[in-house]
Amino acid sequence: MALATPQQRTDAPPAHPAGAAAMAAVVQDVLARRAADDGALLPILHELQDRLGHVPAQAVPDIAQALNLSRAEVHGVVTYYHHFRDKPAGRHVVQICRAEACQSMGADALMAHAELRLGCAHHGTTADGEFTLEPVFCLGLCASAPAMTIDDEVHARVTPRRFDALVEEVRSAE
Amino acid sequence: MSVTVYVPRDSAALAAGAERVARRIAEEAGARGIKLRLVRNGSRGLFWLEPLVEVRTAAGRVAYGPVTPEDVPGLFDAGFHLGGAHPLALGLTEEIPYLKKQERLVFARMGITDPLSVEDYEAHEGYAGLRRALTMAPAQVVQEVFDSGLRGRGGAAFPAGIKWKTVAGAQAAQKYIVCNADEGDSGTFSDRMTMEGDPLVLIEGMTIAAIATGATRGYIYVRSEYPHAIAALEAAIRHAEDAGFLGDNVQGSGHAFRLEVRKGAGSYVCGEETALLESIEGKRGIVRAKPPLPALQGLFGQPTLINNVITFASVPIILARGAVFYRDYGVGRSRGTLPMQLAGNIRFGGLVEKAFGVTLRELLYDFGGGTATGRPVKAVQFGGPLGAYMPESQFDLPVDYEAFAAVGATVGHGGLVVHDDTVDLSKMARYAMEFCAIESCGKCTPCRIGSTRGVEVIDRIRADHNRVQQVALLRDLCNTMVNGSLCAMGGMTPFPVLSALNHFPQDFGVSAPDKKAA
Q1: What architecture (CATH level 2) is domain B425-508?
Q2: Beta-carbon neighbour count of residue B138 at 10 Å?
């Protein structure tokens, strides 16, 4: 996330519904099991995000202490990688591939359609918190373009109509 | 009689609905009282036919595709589980021309075996390479790789044997084998297919490398966009450990080798080997200056052999069949085969493994069948986002590292992305700069600043603001990026930009190509 807008939420309240105590417990659990591993920082951040939905800024000092790093170093790593988020995403994450192969089959138009349909720009979340829309650079489905994911599910040859059907499917599944 | 049906688990098949098809087949078989063994294989790489369902018959495997869940009852009615006739039937899988015309060495098992079964792997020549390597002196194994002519398949095409020799000769208490599985190039998916569809071949290749160089620990760095590949690798590693092919004493040889999967976090530049090592160490994925070479001071400062997935996956067959067997494929200094990936706007997209020397035209038309949209092909980008846009006049080039380099193009990781005549190459050139600006690690100025300036300059060219001067400025900027960048990110972003400008000047509003200055 080298060129993205810097985030300034170091003292924001915890957004996780389970609350600060539960979050701290998860952080301590992850650190206890992983801190001694070689090159432990990325696996730690991944597990935190998998379990909490994001890497809370409050966890940074604890991670830094456990790994004998400065808070700046940990913050630098969290913000460098596109994958890590410092606040929770919407309930569902939609990723649309923007790379060349998908562009050759209409990915730009698909992204424009998705923005219109969901009512949020890419990198944004819908007002109801239901969907976060993100660009992604290659899902490795380049022979079946354009490709996208909704949460853990991959979809190929996505037309605007198919996009609408997939979004509807997710909405109605709740 | 028990019936065996294959439904791929490759993500491209899943993206086309393979999971629902598999579930429907199991349900339907249950309802009809048919005893059926469902194997979740890798993909054959014929993606326009996915989900491609196969059935084992006495004559060989018979294919049906593309199958939707709604087709399943009709397939059973037609007796597809016994190889019965049906409008979706494609005949014997091996006889499908797209497959039959290929030379699958690295992808020999792809789509045929159960990716997670060590037993199935061994029944299809798996671990024959390792077994032979264990009877040889480590230096002989290195020599065999050297003699095969294998070059790094990640893009740089550096002779693998030289790298292996350097690591083998380094003195250190701890050495590492690292697999670069950060396949971020658009138009490439051969690494992903290998990890999902035949992960044991990668594990075997890395194990051979460990024994040859004296390394005892290995990491596979996989991008986070590939969750299915990560899951398949982790399962395959467990199974290889259980079967004694990984661990403290590989096949009772006294060699120890432990392997771990590390997940990337959405940074394209981590595909650059030194940035990748930084990332495994838990740092920002910033490129290191070389020297020191990773082979001498790599991961955690120790001697490290780092190769791409396909490089490692090529090693087992080289060891199993010998260097000469492999070297006999190919042309010039490009020896062996390359699993190429036909992508983008192409009718028959998929995986084509052929010996070097096949022409672009054969790939595009004989295999690919032209564009998916049915319009003329305008440009082909070969070798990922840092590869050149090639015009029709270059389609007769053979795929060969040197032949491509001679025209300013690059084979890269063997992926090609087809664009039809609706593409605007000035827009694609702008995108190349934009992508570089988003993904630059920021360490060197030509890449960090040059890419942003590049977007601005191309915007001015497109808007016809001082176009002639801006074109000169763009060439000058590209020159700085090529010669002044620390790694291929900034150093090769000018390839797509300048090739677009040189071959398609009309898209930039420039009338005649003002000589191929660059």
Answers
A1: Up-down Bundle (1.20)
A2: 17
Instruction: Please check whether residue B284 touches A, CB under 8 A.
Output: yes
> Distance (Å) from the C-alpha of residue B237 to the closest C-alpha of chain A?
18
CATH class of B333-420: alpha beta
Query: Are residues B518 and B496 in contact, defined by beta-carbon separation less than 8 angstroms?
Result: no
Chain B positions in Cβ-Cβ contact with residue A157 (cut-off 8 Å): 16
The answer to whether B421 faces chain A, any CB pair under 8 Å, is no
- Rounded CA-CA distance A156/A145 in Å is 6
CATH of domain B118-327: 3.40.50.11540
Question: Sheet harboring B377-382: ordered strands across?
Answer: B350-355, B337-344, B415-420, B377-382, B389-390
Other beta carbons less than 10 A from residue B85's beta carbon: 10
User: Tell me: domain B3-100, CATH 3.40.30.10, correct?
Assistant: yes
Helix, strand, coil tally for chain A in percent (to 5) = 45, 10, 45
Closest chain B residue by Cα to residue A44:
B282
The ranges assigned to domains in chain A are: 19-80, 92-172
| Interface contact A82-B266, CB threshold 8 A | yes
Q: Could you tell me if A76 and A115 are in contact, meaning their C-beta atoms sit under 8 angstroms apart?
A: no
The predicted model scores a pTM of: 0.95
Chain A's closest residue to B278, CA to CA, is A39
- The class of domain A92-172 in CATH terms is alpha beta
Grade residue A174 by pLDDT with cuts at 50, 70 and 90: confident
Which residues in B lie closer than 8 A to residue A134 (C-beta atoms)?
none
- Residue A147 to residue B15, Cβ atoms within 8 A: yes
Quote the mean pLDDT of chain B: 97
Reported ipTM: the value is: 0.94
In the block, tokens 């009852």 appear at B73
Report d(CA B367, CA A31) in Å as an integer: 51
Q: How does pLDDT run across B4-30, given as a tens digit for each residue?
A: 999 999 999 999 999 999 999 999 999
d(CA B159, CA B146): 7
Q: Where are the domains of chain B?
A: 3-100, 118-327, 333-420, 425-508
| Nearest-neighbour CA in chain B from A126: distance (Å) | 23
Indicate the pLDDT class of residue B178, thresholds 50, 70 and 90: very high
- Angle (CA) B193-B368-B427 rounded to 5° is 90
Residues 48 to 107 of B: which have CB under 8 A from any A CB? 48, 50
Partner B, chain A 59-118, Cβ-Cβ below 8 Å: 67, 73, 76-77, 80-84, 99-105
**Is A112 strand, coil or helix?**
helix
CB B212 within 8 A of CB B319: no
% of chain B at pLDDT higher than 90: 98
Q: Please state the length of chain B.
A: 518
Residue B137 in this model has a pLDDT that exceeds 70: yes
Calpha distance A125→A118 (Å, rounded): 9
pLDDT for B193-242, tens place per residue? 999 999 999 999 999 999 999 999 999 999 999 999 999 999 999 999 99
